[in-house]
Structure formats: structure tokens, C-alpha cells
Amino acid sequence: xxxxxxxxxxxxxxxxxxxxxxxxxxxxxxxxxxxxxxxxxxxxxxxxxxxxxxxxxxxxxxxxxxxxxxxxxxxxxxxxxxxxxxxxxxxxxxxxxxxxxxxxxxxxxxxxxxxxxxxxxxxxxxxxxxxxxxxxxxxxxxxxxxxxxxxxxxxxxxxxxxxxxxxxxxxxxxxxxxxxxxxxxxxxxxxxxxxxxxxxxxxxxxxxxxxxxxxxxxxxxxxxxxxxxxxxxxxxxxxxxxxxxxxxxxxxxxxxxxxxxxxxxxxxxxxxxxxxxxxxxxxxxxxxxxxxxxxxxxxxxxxxxxxxxxxxxxxxxxxxxxxxxxxxxxxxxxxxxxxxxxxxxxxxxxxxxxxxxxxxxxxxxxxxxxxxxxxxxxxxxxxxxxxxxxxxxxxxxxxxxxxxxxxxxxxxxxxxxxxxxxxxxxxxxxxxxxxxxxxxxxxxxxxxxxxxxxxxxxxxxxxxxxxxxxxxxxxxxxxxxxxxxxxxxxxxxxxxxxxxxxxxxxxxxxxxxxxxxxxxxxxxxxxxxxxxxxxxxxxxxxxxxxxxxxxxxxxxxxxxxxxxxxxxxxxxxxxxxxxxxxxxxxxxxxxxxxxxxxxxxxxxxxxxxxxxxxxxxxxxxxxxxxxxxxxx
Length: 632
Known about the structure:
Number of strands: 24
Helix content: 40-55%
Distance between the termini: 126 Å
Radius of gyration: 48 Å
Number of helices: 19
Strand content: 25-35%
Mean pLDDT: 81
């Protein structure tokens, strides 16, 4: 086949011109050629539009100019040329840099320009013989940002679906320090909705958090952006009502293709209702724990008022008891926010509004705004007392109004069902505690009266014994022993009376029974933990100690100058052990017969402790032991 040489030369010139025309026409793609060392040899109009340099500026410069500093430091341009030679092409999807320094997301590829051709004019793939490279790419920034927005929206929707309640979404742009948020998120943080959708400085959100919670919230955000951990933080935001709004924010960091942290995408949930329920439960438990050991009705009322006031963010809380005229209330205690007036003292209920008949019928009075409630006769007067909203709860007894719990707020508010239920429960708890104190006082009074009468009976018994046995010869010792036992019973009764309970501490029983002998300093050594004994155990131990002390004074360790008595007791898991050990006294012989005192010690004493007792006669001193249980 023969070809006209002049036509071939003309055709080659036309082809070269056509190629230049094609390159100029491709305006949405950058087409750049490089020599074998990576310097620019041609630059089309698309390259100028995308990158900013014109052809005269670009030719002769290194391809490094449109790579980022990070990629240049990692020799990315050289890597692409090497891959293009080895594999015939090198794909390139990454950040690039324009002339003005702005980054854009470029997507394209690089291919080698092959120098050798075969007989048919086809390029020969010879890596050792190339004429340079061609790099073709386009700006995909808008497409990439759109895809990222879709991904972030999907992430937000996924998070929102996993939560209930009032939910807002946000996107924190770390590079520009702006938070883009939806309508709900903006309102929860008191941010202008329009500006929130465009992007609001993060500090505006921090400023909307209560000062005492700001440090914790900021620390959580900083930890997320610094350490790439998920955001999970609860805080309160500023509100215009009496109750704070509790928010729970959660989020996850989003990274770009280079692994750089770019966005924090998340949700914010209004958890105020759950938090208020939790606070109410904790308040009731706190009051129940505090009031358990209180024995003063006024102090109980004061504690209840304080717990209610702080839990409900009220201005004033108090308890009042109605007099027989059904209008006078005696307020013994109240709690007041700083700056508000106390109502302690006797007040006329009619001075606070015309709804006394409602209370007397056993119905609640709940007013959110005294200015707009028709039941309020004198709203100006109530405002003067610092009352814009109120609750009055009646306490009825046998169909008659007994007391009232009142709660005041200096601002209008909507009382919730949970708050009203909480008030009713606290009112019942407080007056149940007051009734307990009253019943205990009545019981103590009856106990003291009964103890007084028992002592009178014991005293009469002593007199009868003395008078009956006085003239019978040979019974003086027996008479004195019986009288002493009456006195021991009287001493045990004194211990129980002083305790004002059905129980008494073992140490007080020991000290009361051995009081006549305790002045002998160092001769009676008492050790053991605090243990409560019931009334029967007090009587049994008192009788046993009386017999032991009497015997020790006459014949045992207290009858000489050197004797000692070691008294010890211990208890574990309900068991009880008591010991009386005499030492350094005169020699002891076991008696031939057993008297009444020995019977008490050997048989009766242990029975009071559901166990046994034993009297042991050692040569160097008596030993007495009780082994039993502390049954209640």
C-alpha cells in the first residue's frame, strides 16, 4: 500500500490542529501534559478554569503546584507517575489546590505518553521509553459535599429513630467552628432558628447552658473532637420558667477520605420529664431517710417544706394546722426562697383567697396564675405577698379539715400532674411521721405511768416482807435477801423507764445493778460492745448480777483487798455470751446445798436469753456464764 507523502504531511498537521481544538473545547476537564520529570508542557482552558493559572504561568512549572502540601511531602506526584508507567494508568481522587490556595476535590487519572510505535503506528508499552504524561481530571467538590450531606442526614435520621421525646439534630463543622442545627435543636438552646440553619458559633450554644453545667458540657465536646470518642453528655439550659430544661446530647465524628476529623453529627433530646421524675423519687427517698430519726413535729414539717421547695423550685412551702374556727391556721414551720417572707405564726386563711370552702370539702386548690383565675378575689394582695401561683392540699380527719400544705411561686406556672402527686405523697409522709411522734409521746407517758405504779407495787412488797418477817426470829438474813431482790427488780425497772423504750443497752443495766460496788475503782472491769436487751432480758440479767455482786461482797472477790471481777459479753449473728469471772479473792468451796440465789443463776438467768446459764466454783474464784440468743 502506498501513501501520498504530501497528503500524509497535510493530514498530520490537520490532526495536530484538531487535537489542539479538542483540548480547547474540553472546558469542564483539566487536561495537563507533563514531561518525564513532571514539569508542565501543556495546559488547556479547562485546567485554567479549574486551577486558576493561565497557560503562560503554568508551562514549565512542576505538577506539585496543584497538589496539597501534605501530598507533596509524601511524594504523591512522583508516586502517580510511577504507577502510570507500571500499570498504564494511575487513578487520582483526592484534594487538590487552586492558585488562590482553596482546596477542591479532584477526580481523574494520569497516563504515560508512549514514544515508540510499531509498523502500524500503535503505541508500544515500553516503560523505559516515554515522552511524558497526561493528567485529566475535573472538580467534584460540589458532588462530594452533596454526598456527605446526604450521609450526615442519614446518620441524623438513624440516631433520631433510636430516641423518643423532643429530638433535634445538629452538625458541628469543626473547621469553621459553626453548628448547623434544625428548628428543635435551636429552640432547645434558645438560638435564633434562621441563624441556626445557616450556622451559629459554638460559643452561642455554650452560653445557653446553665453556668454550673457549662464546664462539663464543654469538656465533653472537647474530648470528642480531640480523642475521636462519641459525644454523650447531659446538661441543663437556661429557661424562663421555674424548672430547668434537661438535655441529652449524643453525636459521632465524621471523617474525610484522608481520615481528618471534619464534622460532629448528632442529636439532642429533651429529657426534662424523665429527670423531674427521677428528682421527685430521690426527694421522697431523701425525706423518708431524714425523717426516720426525727422526734420533733416542727422539725419534721420544716424538713418536708425544704425538700418540697427545692424539688419543685418553689418560692415558699409550709404546713398549717386549722383551729376549731376553721379559718385560723397555725403555721409552725415553712421554707422560703431567699428574699421571700415567712408565714410562720397564726394566720387567717381567708386572707389568702376566697376558696376556703373548697378545702373544707376536701378538694385541692391549684392555681397557675392568680391574675387570671376567677376564684381569686384579691390577686393584687396575693402578688404583694409574692404569690403568683399556688397549690393548697387539704388533710381531712373524720370528715373535718385538719391541716393544709401550701406551695407558692412568685411567677405563674403550670403545675404538672407529677408535681401534684408528689405533693400529696409528701404531705401524707410528713403527717404520718408527726403522728408517729405523737403516738410515741403518748406511749412514753403511759410507760412512765406504768413504771411508776410497778415501783409502787415493789415498794409495797418490800414493806409487807419487812413487816411480816420482822418479829420472826432467825429470818433476818432471809428478810434482807428478799428485800434486796425487790430492790434489784426496782433498779431494772428504772433502767427500762430511763430508756423510754422496750429495750435498754446492756451497759446501762450492768452499771445500774452494780452501782453500789462500782466506786471500788479498778476492781470491776467491764468490757463488751453496745447491745440492746429487751425488757425480759433486762430483768433476768439484773437479778443475776444482783445475786453475783451480793455473793462477791460477802464471800468472793469483793470481800478482800485484792480481788477483781472481769465482766465481758459479746454477740455475733444473734448469739449472745456473757461471763462473770472472779479472781484473787479468797478460796471458794462449792456449797453443800443450793439456795434461791443459786437457782436464779443456774436455771433462770439463761432462760431469759433462750439458752442456758452455769455457775462454776473454781478454787480461785466463781465463774458465771450465759450462752443464748438475743431474741426480740
